[in-house]
Design goal:
The structure is a single chain. With about 450 residues, the chain is mostly helical. Among the domains are: about 130 residues; about 50 residues, no CATH class. It has 13 helices and 13 strands. A three-stranded antiparallel sheet has the order 2-1-3. A hairpin with a 5-residue loop joins strand 12 and strand 13. The longest helix is centred in the C-terminal third of the chain and has 78 residues. About 5% of the residues are buried. It comes from Diversispora epigaea. Pfam families: zf-RING_2. InterPro entries: Ubox_domain, Znf_RING, Znf_RING/FYVE/PHD, Znf_RING_CS, Znf_TRAF. Keywords: Coiled coil, Metal-binding, Zinc, Zinc-finger. This is RING-type domain-containing protein.
């Protein structure tokens, strides 16, 4: 099966999946789970998007969604981790592949490890489809390659095994050459082994201590990538806030320059002109006398009084103060975000250190238990092989002691001999009970998942 047609809905799961992790639309475990904010139901992103494109209602409770695109939010990280860590079989199980692993690693398995995927022959004129494990053999016996081999005079030598191959096969051979120098598959986790490809597949990969921890390292790597992504988002948010603060500062500077260069000088000149005419500044000074139709006489000023300077400058100063306060508020928010970011990073580091130390302690306890069981089994085997010799050696001191005491009191000697035999029997029973207790402890230990 080709990896380009990978569909996670077609994979076969090893164990029964929890019903809470099943999408009610496609009836398979969630793929890219999203949550509808209005009702809180969880669906696959592709499933709910297809449903909402026809009718903007929730498929479960039929609640109407005003804005379908904004209602969909990514589900919590724990849900994504649970569905991604479900154990599945390889898509080529029917062809003979025995792989079992996490769903999130199935794509990597199909691309790099699976030998049962279908590939096209590397010869351009050949159209046959063969499995990856048979590709090398097919290339050696390919009819098109044999026909072209007569015309192809270019022969290259493998730098690892010194065998000669045609130029069309040399690259494929180098990838699978048993003498090729490679590193361990778990080199990124800390394994420093280096050797040829034959030793890696037949010896080292089965003995590598990092292989039993690859699931833990995979989760650790995924968690670190998630934290790096969150940190990058926080940095982007901080950068946006800083840009907004800088923009506000520029606006404040422009407003301040505008006020200082145009508004205040114009007001000053305005009041200076009125100061040269005191009568104009006094609105109570009668300049014109108007006679109404009723014969009443009313005194009118020459022109309306100018607005007071404080009433004009007050709105400008108020706006300026508001901008300054907003600027200070944004600065405080940026500082708070910086503190929260540092605190979050510190917490994550402490959590990772705690998890690592816990895993080391568990590994050490398992090693100690195995060592204790080995010593007990060694003691039992030695005791069984020794047989009568050890029994004779163990009873000799008791016989000598009994002989010394018999001269004083034969009755006491016989009683003590019986007591010694009883004590030996009790010690043996206690010894086997301790072994049974250790065995029960061994069975209670969590079984390591078979890789």
């Amino acid at each position: 099966m080709e990896t380009s047609t990978l569909d996670l809905r077609s994979v076969l799961y090893v164990e029964t999946v929890n019903s809470n992790l099943i999408c009610c639309i496609c009836q398979t475990p969630f793929i890219e789970p999203v949550v509808v904010e209005t009702c809180g139901h969880t669906f696959c992103r592709s499933c709910i998007s297809q449903v909402l494109s026809t009718k903007p209602t929730c498929p479960v409770d039929r609640s109407v969604l005003s804005d379908a695109s904004s209602e969909l939010k990514s589900a919590s990280k724990i849900i994504s981790n649970m569905v991604n860590e479900l154990l599945v079989y390889c898509l080529n199980k029917d062809l003979g592949c025995t792989y079992k692993g996490q769903r999130q690693l199935i794509n990597l398995h199909l691309k790099e490890e699976c030998k049962f995927i279908s590939l096209k022959c590397l010869n351009e004129e050949c159209t046959e489809i063969v499995m990856k494990k048979d590709l090398m053999k097919h290339m050696e016996n390919c009819k098109k390659a044999i026909c072209n081999k007569v015309e192809d005079d270019k022969v290259e030598e493998c730098s690892y095994c010194n065998k000669k191959y045609s130029s069309s096969l040399i690259l494929l051979h180098i990838e699978e050459c048993p003498n090729k120098i490679v590193t361990c598959l778990y080199a990124e986790f800390g394994c420093s082994w280096v050797g040829n490809q034959h030793e890696l597949k037949n010896e080292h990969i089965n003995l590598c201590s990092y292989g039993s921890l690859k699931n833990f390292f995979g989760e650790y790597k995924q968690r670190m990538e998630s934290l790096e992504h969150e940190n990058q988002q926080l940095k982007s948010s901080v950068q946006e806030l800083q840009n907004k603060v800088q923009s506000l500062q520029d606006q404040i500077t422009e407003i301040s320059d505008c006020v200082s260069s145009s508004v205040i000088p114009s007001l000053s000149s305005y009041y200076l002109n009125y100061s040269n005419h005191p009568n104009l500044l006094n609105p109570n000074k009668d300049i014109v006398v108007e006679t109404t139709s009723s014969g009443d006489r009313r005194v009118l000023p020459l022109s309306p009084p100018p607005p007071p300077l404080s009433s004009i400058s007050q709105p400008i100063l108020t706006t300026y103060e508001l901008l300054l306060s907003d600027n200070d508020h944004l600065k405080n928010e940026v500082e708070t975000l910086n503190v929260n970011l540092a605190d979050l990073e510190l917490r994550q580091n402490v959590a990772l250190m705690t998890e690592s130390s816990r895993m080391q302690e568990e590994l050490q306890s398992v090693k100690n238990l195995c060592h204790g069981l080995r010593m007990q089994m060694h003691y039992l085997l030695t005791e069984r092989r020794g047989g009568g010799n050890e029994a004779t050696t163990a009873t000799a001191p008791v016989t000598r002691t009994t002989g010394l005491i018999r001269s004083n009191n034969n009755v006491n000697v016989s009683i003590k001999g019986n007591n010694n035999n009883n004590n030996n029997t009790k010690a043996t029973n206690g010894h086997f009970k301790s072994l049974q207790k250790l065995g029960s402890m061994g069975t209670d230990l969590p079984r390591q998942e078979k890789l």
